[in-house]
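Subject: Protein entry, chain in single-letter code together with its fold tokens

Category: Structural biology, sequence-to-fold work with a learned token vocabulary.

Notation: Tokens come from a learned vocabulary of local backbone shapes, not from coordinates.

Start of record: The labelled sequence and token lines come straight after this line.
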Amino acid sequence: MRFLPGITFLLLILMLFSCGSSQEDKGRVKLERAKVLLQNQDTTNALQELDSISRLYPKAAYSINAAKNLRDEINWDLLQRYESEVDSLSDIIQNLEKNFIKEKTEFDRDTQYVHKRQQFENRWNKSFLRVHLNEKGDIYFSSNYYGSQFINHNGIRVYDGPEQAKTERLEEGDANIHRSEFLDGKWERVTFMNGNENNVIEFIAHNTSLRLKAVFLGEKYYYIILEEYDKNAFKQALTLSNTIKKKRFLSKEIKRLQVALNIES
């Protein structure tokens, strides 16, 4: 009889091993894995590990509660970081906006940013490339030709030596091609947007130090040298576009985190 307690203990050990790890043990493993990911600055995968605990191991009460607390800590840190970043972005936007005029006509769905050096009424008798930007950060550009005869252009190439960027060629009849005339003057405007501008905007914005030229591609070719203020307009517009988009993204993330933390905005 004196061997009974030892036999009983041995049987209990065997039963535990045969059953394998409990849900709580498995939950703790994921919890520790999430902590390691956080130490490695991998917040996204850490949150995925934490969110999976309650789904995979619904009986692991301790691990589920610990995961929730850790997730709340992460979200709180993210919320504070994003709010601080949005404040900084707002200051950058306010500074960049000094270079633009904000306007919204009856035909505009969103407020438009017009660069002060690219107002059409001051450039109506010039051929130039004009950058367009709205309050959502959407950016595109148009080629504006003025001359004594039509060239029927439908594409643009910007270059300096071997460095270049080129738009798609629009089909004749495209709604983004506009032509008009008055007396001896001929005007053409082609708007490049929704991908057909390729990387022309970025090319100009990132190469303002180069002596960039542009060729209007059509039935005839027309060449211009980009003015310094036009190159800077593209650079400032692209910077403003990226800043607006980043602020809009972070603002949505802030609202999501506030909901997750039960914080009223």
The CA atoms of residues 25 and 58 lie 12 Å apart. The helical segments are 4-19, 23-39, 43-56, 61-96, 120-123, 200-205, 228-260. The chain has seven helices and ten strands. The longest strand covers residues 139-147.
